[in-house]
Design brief:
By secondary structure, the chain is mainly α. It has 3 helices and no strands.
Length: about 55
C-alpha cells in the first residue's frame, strides 16, 4: 500500500491493472518513464533524476 492506496486503487488511477502495480512493488518490472510519470501524477508527486559521478 502506498499513501493509503491499495494496488487496485492506484492501478485504476493510472489506467492499468493491479498486477502491473504489484510487479513494480516487488521489483520484477522495469517501468517506462511515461508510466512512472502517470504514477507520479496520480500521487501528486514529481520525478527527479540525480546524476552522481562514479568514484571508482
Amino acid at each position: 500500500m502506498l499513501r493509503g492506496l491499495t494496488q487496485a486503487q492506484l492501478a485504476e488511477m493510472v489506467g492499468t491493472r493491479q498486477p502491473s502495480i504489484a510487479r513494480l512493488e516487488n521489483g520484477s518490472s522495469s517501468p517506462s518513464l511515461s508510466f512512472l510519470n502517470k504514477i507520479a501524477e496520480a500521487l501528486g508527486a514529481k520525478i527527479e533524476f540525480k546524476l552522481i559521478p562514479d568514484t571508482k
